[in-house]
Each structure stands twice: as structure tokens, then as C-alpha cells.
Amino acid sequence: SRHVRRARRVYLGRREVLVAELRRALGDRVAVEVPSGGLAVWARVEGDVEGLRDRALARGVMFFVGKDFTFDHRSIPYARFGFGSLDEKELARAVRVVGDAAARRRRAMHR
């Protein structure tokens, strides 16, 4: 139906924005698997992914980390970024916050 085609186009656009912004903001510190479906993207994130989440959350941006999905809650270097509820501008802003949080961490480590 027309509604399904429109929804698919909207969510594909959001997914593409999210993936591009993650790669731009985090560069070689992130490896993104582009999913064929769904409303979230999994990414392998170099460094302290839980700390990154905490710093982003302090600035109003939430994402899940791999540890949230393990039975033993052990840390694994993955993050799950949802894109279903945000429009493209909101996604770009959220990823900028994540990128800034990562950059702040790197600057703090090199002082």
C-alpha cells in the first residue's frame, strides 16, 4: 500500500542519516553494520562504550550498549542506536552529541 511504501522510505532515510552521521562523528572508532530491516543500528565502538553512553546521556542522548543485552552483563564493545522515533535533524543532533562526548573523552585522556 501507499502507506507502507511511504513508511519504508521514511525509515530508510533515517537509517541512512544515522549511519552517515555515526561514521562522520566517530570515524574509524566505529564500525557500523547496516541492517536490512528494523529500526535500530548496531555499531562496534572502540573504547569505553559504557562511559560514552553515560556522557551522552548527561547531555540528553540515550542509546543502549551491548552489556544491556548480555545475560551476564559483561561489557562488550557494541552500541545500539534506534532511529524510529527521531526525524533526520534530531538524529544528526543526537549523533553530534555522541561525537562530542567521544571527543571530550579523548581530550581528557591526552592531558
List key phrases describing it.
4-stranded antiparallel sheet; 111 residues; globular; 3 helices; alpha+beta
- Amount of beta strand: 15-25%
Largest sheet composition:
4 strands, antiparallel
Shape: globular
Roughly what percent helix?
40-55%
Written description of the protein model:
The chain has helices spanning 2-26, 49-58, 88-109; strands at residues 30-33, 40-45, 64-65, 78-82. The model has no long low-confidence stretch (mean pLDDT 94). The chain is α+β, with helices and mostly antiparallel strands and 111 residues long. It is built from 3 helices and 4 strands; from the N terminus they run αββαββα. α2 crosses α3. It has a 4-stranded antiparallel beta sheet with strand order 1-2-4-3, covered by helices on one side. 26% of the residues are buried.
Task: Give a summary of the structure in a few sentences.
With 111 residues, the chain is of the alpha+beta class.
Topology:
Elements: H1 2-26, E1 30-33, E2 40-45, H2 49-58, E3 64-65, E4 78-82, H3 88-109
Antiparallel strand pairs: 1-2, 2-4, 3-4
